[in-house]
Amino acid sequence: MKKLILVAIVAASFSAQASFYQENCSNGAATIKLNNGHVQNGIILTERSYGNGGVNSQEIEYKRGSLQIDSLNELEISADTTTSCQPGSTGGMVSWTKVTTKDVVIKKADGSMFPDTTLGLNSNRMEVKATVICELNGNSRTSCPQ
What we know:
Blueprint: H1 2-15, E1 19-26, E2 32-37, E3 42-51, E4 54-62, E5 67-83, E6 91-108, E7 127-143
Antiparallel strand pairs: 1-2, 1-7, 2-3, 3-4, 5-6, 6-7
């Protein structure tokens, strides 16, 4: 029984898959940032006010569940996929990069208004709109064709 358990653990360790996924999106001024993946998760919106002390900018980070994000007009700019498969190998690594642009509409999930200092805000303070460029990077183990 102990040998069977040991064999099962060793077999599982060889089939374990390491992977990575990260997508970062931003508008041109980097005042709206959308992050999703293993390193960063969340939405960052910039609030900017003007006063006697000059310009005051502050990045506010929102959790993904607190905002609703609608993506429109997504367009792929470039995509690249590479594998480490060699002749005769049954497995290897695959990595990919994809660059897209899209329009996003961001609303608070609870239906409340954004502060009036939020950049990209529409007139009723219910939506932030922007065109963003996104870069997706990932890698994982893969099966190689025979």
